[in-house]
Write a structure and sequence with these properties.
This protein is mainly alpha-helical. It has 4 helices and 3 strands, in the order αααβαββ.
Length: 206
């Protein structure tokens, strides 16, 4: 079994490695994201300024840095939790190999999660940078817009208008879906899309 094989010393060494890996990999993730996020964010801010006929988009350099730091930290937190569970699962099947489990997690994050993350970030970047641009430019309200054949959760928010510094949904708020569907409860306050994985909604000036 992994726990008896690794022992206290093995676990301590693994935790030490994981701490260092998380620190080093966060910097790597942030560096990889910087180019695409900066470019997409600048385009979103320019478009947002045009939508309200502003003379120019505001400088969002500080927000870009904060956004990159936050996104990299979230990616690392998810990866770190997955690696810890891989090495120390609640129950260990017969013949369990922690090294193989770690390799599987890393491969899955590379092959599957990265694509999902990129799709999510594309929507998140456009909306986040637009909201910040409108805030800096003094706009006062936002409106949620769902496109095409959207889900019932997004349909519930479609057309909702809030103040520029307000939330479209509060953390833990029950957002109704289709009849018989379990309500969606966001884990954090929702200021802009995506509301959930695969959400392609947008905010516009309200």
């Amino acid at each position: 079994a992994a726990k008896s094989l690794l022992g206290k010393r093995g676990r301590a060494e693994f935790d030490e490695w994981l701490n260092q890996f998380a620190t080093d990999h966060a910097a790597f993730v942030e560096k990889q994201m910087r180019g695409p996020v900066t470019a997409a964010g600048a385009l979103a801010a320019d478009s947002a300024a045009d939508e309200i006929n502003a003379d120019a988009a505001p400088d969002l350099t500080e927000f870009t840095d904060d956004y990159l730091s936050d996104r990299a930290a979230r990616w690392i937190a998810i990866l770190r939790a997955a690696l810890q569970e891989a090495v120390y699962p609640p129950t260990e099947p017969t013949g369990y190999d922690p090294l193989a489990a770690v390799q599987t997690v890393l491969q899955q994050r590379k092959d599957e999660a990265a694509d999902d993350w990129a799709r999510d970030q594309a929507i998140r970047i456009v909306n986040a940078f637009a909201v910040v641009a409108w805030t800096v430019l003094g706009w006062l309200a936002l409106r949620w817009v769902a496109f095409g054949k959207n889900c019932d959760f997004c349909g519930h928010l479609n057309g909702r208008t809030v103040g520029i510094s307000s939330w479209f949904a509060q953390a833990g708020e029950s957002i109704p879906g289709a009849d018989g569907q379990t309500p969606l409860k966001p884990g954090s306050n929702v200021r802009h899309p995506p509301l959930h994985n695969g959400c392609d909604c947008m905010v516009v000036p309200g």
